[in-house]
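Proteins fold. Shown next:

***
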Amino acid sequence: MLSLLAYILNPIFLFSLGVSVALCFHIVRTRQDTFWLWIVLMFQGIGSLVYIAVILIPSVLGGDSARKLRKNAEAALDPGREYREAKARLDDTPTVHNQMRFASAAMAQGRFAEAEQAYREAATGVHAEDPALLLGRARALIELGRFNDSMAVLDALAALGDDGSSPGAVLARARSLHGLGQMRAAEVAYREAAERLPGFEAMARLTAFLAEAGHVDEARTNLSEIDRRIAKLSGPFRKEASGWRDLAAAKIR
């Protein structure tokens, strides 16, 4: 009993408790997501430091970098948050903008059927030829393995003009052709996408395709280049790039 009392009266514990209470007040007053209350209270000390780093400091500093840091941290702590918020917003106000936000969040959660439906329902009326909606739907169809349908959507996108030949559309076409077994046409599209699309996805998908098609030496060369680029990265960028690297490496024997 005395040891428990001594612990409670410990200045460090009292300071940590005081900080936690103050942060809980801030969470409620500023209407932060309630999961922060759980983090601060359940993980006293560490939880408070996380909240300070993710919420308080970015709110004081402002700027795009701070906001991106906060968004990435919140996504890591609560991966389903954006999906839940987007779904709630869509239920309250079923606008095209909210349908697009929900579809994007559903894609990120691997809910491809929900994403495809949202993109399809949004792409009606005056928005029937919206390039972003068409490309989003094509990507969802690819993830569902509906390659004939994705090709049809991509053909409709191509008929609109330059948007049909954007780097993202080219990569989607490459994946659709690949899924349909049209390997030569897929290779051409993959190579074009890898040259034009920034980031690691197109290069990784090309590398995986080359390995599958029997061009193992070139695939290994590409993988080495991916490793070289990743070595220069840090933080969340490196984590995302490593995911694409793993996709490519899994196909190389």
The chain has three domains: 11-77, 79-194, 198-253.
